[in-house]
Amino acid sequence: MPDFAVLAQGPALTTYEALSGVFGSISLAAWIFLLVPQLVENYKQGSADGISLAFLTVWFIGDITNLAGALWAGLVPTVTALAVYFCFADLILISQCVYYNVKNARGARKASTHSQDSAHEPLLGRQDSNLGLPGSHRRRSSAASGRRRASSLPSIADYPETSDVWWKNSLSLAGVVGVGVAGWAIAWRTGVWVPTPTKDDNGGVETALGATVLGYASALCYLGARIPQIIKNQKDRSCEGLSLLFFILSLLGNATYGAGILFHSTERAYFLTNLPWLIGSLGTIVEDVTIFIQFRVFGSGGARTYVPES
């Protein structure tokens, strides 16, 4: 009969083992919820123009090589299951982006065709809409000009909206961290999670060379995936259509994943075994920070300029 008192208290842990488990669980929670903010943002915008398909495609390739490496190396089922989840989640986001791109492209073609048809209408028919009292055209032009000037100036209402977004993101981040910590605590106290020994982490079996190669290929894909997005943001001088929370969760997941590995063990053999995944996680933090800077500089609406009428 099991000793429930021991199960209730959980196995004895060192500080480093506990931190490794907590960070790993927070990372898992961040990855599970990672793509949800961008899916919601695309749905609200009715567009996927803000996110680079090249970014998602390279990231998807990285997840495929990550899954193949996990299967080849015979990693624990939870790691393999998470890799499978990543691939399906990537496909959902990519499918959504392709759907909106095709849909909006068709709408743009229809609008262009309608505009060309209007250009062949009789000149008198187009002028009828401009007939009226003397000076009415100038008043309409002045009103339109005034609206353009007003839209080019920052609105006071923009500041509470920005503050509200940051507040919601902070609450979401705290929620993900809370879920990760609670999940680890429950798993530890019920005996589902136990610290992995630092000695013979692979059970005396070396990781297959092919699995290691796939691990490094995955790391290179993760490192290169964000470059197209950074370039796109720079060209557009805007981060409109991107979910800031998406990149915040990415930063959280990468940072806690790397911390979980390093707190588990710093032995040379263990470090070298996990080096591809450390490169892929910690290396992308620099690129995430670059995107945060772009959000700060460009905002989410792009630079507005006003050209006076001649």
UniProtKB/TrEMBL annotation:
It is a multi-pass membrane protein. GO terms for molecular function: basic amino acid transmembrane transporter activity. Pfam families: PQ-loop. Its main location: membrane. It is found in: Membrane. One of its GO terms (cellular component) is lytic vacuole membrane. Residues 136-149 have a biased composition (Basic residues). GO terms for biological process: vacuolar transmembrane transport. The chain crosses the membrane at residues 20-40, 52-75, 81-102, 171-188, 208-225, 245-263, 275-295. Residues 111-149 are annotated as: Disordered. It comes from the Eukaryota. InterPro entries: LAAT-1 (IPR051415), PQ-loop_rpt (IPR006603). It catalyses: L-histidine(out) + L-arginine(in) = L-histidine(in) + L-arginine(out). Keywords: Membrane, Transmembrane, Transmembrane helix. Belongs to the laat-1 family. This is Vacuolar membrane PQ loop repeat protein-like protein. It comes from Massariosphaeria phaeospora. The lineage of its organism: Eukaryota, Fungi, Dikarya, Ascomycota, Pezizomycotina.
